[in-house]
Design brief:
The chain is an alpha+beta fold. It contains 23 helices and 10 strands. It folds into 5 domains: 78 residues; 52 residues, no CATH class; 106 residues, no CATH class; 76 residues, Gyrase A, domain 2 (2-Layer Sandwich); 48 residues, Orthogonal Bundle (DNA polymerase, domain 1). Strands 8-9-3-10 form a 4-stranded antiparallel sheet. A 4-stranded antiparallel sheet has the order 4-5-7-6. β8 and β9 form a beta hairpin.
């Protein structure tokens, strides 16, 4: 009972009533509930003056009014918040890309706006998208070339370590951007990022074992090779520790070397002796080179594998690329494994995958240098080089060299050859592009040059 009185006194003090008056009211048996229902006369019976009683009742009524207004406001806001169902129905008919609609849906479900706010947000989003769209007859190719070329002048020309993997070097910066634009058959530093299935990604030993299976193993990786000139033989000394680690036996190596060279191979413990068919020094030295090139195990072209732990899972990074072979290994997550060899992606996964790889590689190269280029410029380049179903370079052997316009091709490179060839074959230039119209001194068919004005005479 005493505790209840103490709480009531504190509650009254918080509402601005002095301690003495609060104590008097509690001693008279008043609680907060009773005071809210009481009149001034009831409070005066507790021995409080009429003025003090009036102040007490006024302060209590002010607090109650404020609480009621706040509660009503909160309820009104809650009542006005839109439902996820309404948000979906409003988003359905909007003239916006799916990625923007998905982003809007996530944001709107998080903030829970009122219906009026929802309408305003959606209208502003549509307006912003309309403003961001390209103007009709805009020279998108020239804008894209300028937008990529200008920041390209600020790129360095060094080879950097691969992000987070100091042991692997990879070409970045301007040389990498040139490689992508030139559609090189093989990049200067081919690499792969192999993601693993959950049971391999969480177990380092399994990831390591898979790495040994994939990594190319040659004779020089498991032992030393020498030439015995006296006996005209090639002698291979194997390392037992390395054989055990790479899970390969001396017998398997002897069998492989014999099959590849079609020669007699003798095995004594960890020593292999190869007897060449022809007894000449030149033949012997050539045999050494042939033996060194034999792939005993793993994938040819994958020279080295590094294991890294990223976000709680083990990932394999490789020097060299062989996407088709690597995807066949058990434990490799095919949907998340990447290579920087775009032609290989086109060959294995198709032209759409190659297009996406061009966009991803170009954006990563620019971003790594701290340069911001709108992805739509890169997408335009990727579309141009992959439009005909194969990856073509932006050069005289690709996009620029295969333009329909004779003058446009001649303006790019090897002018005389193009003009002579066109003259011999009787080609006709339609003068539909930018370059050829500039050459002949006509307005180009872009922007205001694409608009033809007609005058309608009064009758």
């Amino acid at each position: 009972m005493r505790l209840a009185k103490k709480d009531t006194v504190k509650a009254l003090e918080r509402r601005g009533i002095d301690a003495k008056t609060a104590e008097t009211l509690c001693n008279a048996g008043f609680t907060m509930g009773k005071l809210k229902k009481a009149s001034i006369e009831d409070v005066m019976k507790a021995g409080i003056s009429k003025t003090s009683a009036g102040k007490v009742m006024e302060k209590l009524s002010k607090i109650d009014t404020k609480v009621t207004k706040t509660t009503k406001k909160v309820k009104k806001e809650e009542r006005g918040a839109v439902t996820p169902l309404l948000i979906d129905s409003k988003l359905k008919g909007l003239p916006l890309p799916l990625s923007i609609i998905d982003e809007l849906r996530t944001y709107l479900n998080k903030v829970k706006p009122t219906e009026a706010q929802l309408e305003r947000i959606l209208q502003m989003s549509v307006d912003a998208y309309e403003r961001a769209r390209i103007e009709p007859c805009e020279a998108v190719g020239i804008v894209a070339a300028q937008s990529i070329g200008e920041p390209g002048t600020q790129m360095t020309m060094r080879t950097f370590h691969y992000a987070g993997v100091a042991e692997i070097n990879v070409t970045l910066g301007l040389p990498r951007l040139i490689e992508i634009a030139d559609a090189r058959k093989v990049p200067s530093t081919p690499i792969m990022r192999i993601k693993l299935e959950p049971e391999y990604a969480r177990d380092r030993e399994k990831a390591r074992a898979l790495g040994w299976k994939i990594e190319e193993t040659n004779i020089i990786d498991v032992g030393s090779i020498a030439v015995d000139m006296a006996k005209m033989q090639v002698v291979i000394e194997l390392n037992e520790k390395i054989l055990s680690r790479r899970n390969i036996t001396a017998e398997e190596i002897a069998k492989k070397v014999g099959a590849e060279t079609n020669l007699d191979v003798q095995l004594e413990g960890l020593k292999l002796t190869v007897n060449p068919g022809r007894h000449s020094y030149r033949g012997l030295l050539q045999l050494v080179e042939d033996v060194k090139g034999i792939t005993l195990k793993g994938v040819k072209g994958i020279h080295r594998i590094i294991i890294r732990k990223e976000n709680g899972e083990y990932v394999l990074y490789t020097e060299g690329s062989a996407l088709k072979r690597v995807l066949q290994f058990e434990g490799v997550n095919a949907s998340r494994t990447k290579t920087n060899n775009i032609n290989e992606i086109a060959e294995v996964l198709g032209i759409e995958a190659a297009r996406n790889a061009i966009i991803s590689e170009a954006m990563d190269t620019l971003r790594e240098q701290g340069l911001e280029v709108d992805i739509r410029h890169i997408m335009l380049v990727a579309d141009m080089v992959t439009a005909e179903g194969e990856v073509k370079q932006i050069g005289r052997h690709g996009v620029a060299g295969e333009k329909a316009s004779v003058l446009s091709r001649a303006a790019f490179e090897v002018t005389v050859n193009h003009l002579l060839d066109a003259g011999v074959k009787g080609h006709v230039d339609e003068l539909a592009g930018v370059t050829e119209n500039v050459i002949v001194g006509q307005p180009i068919q872009l922007g205001t040059g694409d608009v033809e004005l007609m005058y309608k005479a009064k009758e």
